[in-house]
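[User] Could I get a sequence and structure tokens?

[Assistant]
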Amino acid sequence: MRRCFLLLLALAGSPAYAEPWLCAEPDGTKAFNYDPQSATRRDCVDHPLSRGYVKRAAPRSDDYASPADFPRVDAKTQKRRDVARREILKRELAEEQKALADAIREMAELKQARVGAAAPTATALKRYEDRIRVHQANIANLQKELGGEG
């Protein structure tokens, strides 16, 4: 009787534990499965959650080598592309500088009108200040892209 009681206690006391498996269903969704039969399925992965103490092997450098037929650009073509890019950046810089000068001029005219009969609102002045700030930031970014030669 005592042996039977200990056996029942041991069976009742052991928690039900199964390894989680991440399985891909036929419709493409992924779901966790705790069924031991999942171990035999090809579309299931054990330990899908990474553990912090597990160190993964570093990838080998030849895994990331580009294939021989990977498109390459010869130096002459790249030089032409660099020159074209630089010309585009210079053109954009000139346009931004012109737009900045126009915005500053328009704001000065608006402030000049303040002295006259029609006083501009604070929101109109704020709009011009924002435009000027955006143009200045664009010019700084373009000059930085050009290497400070602006």
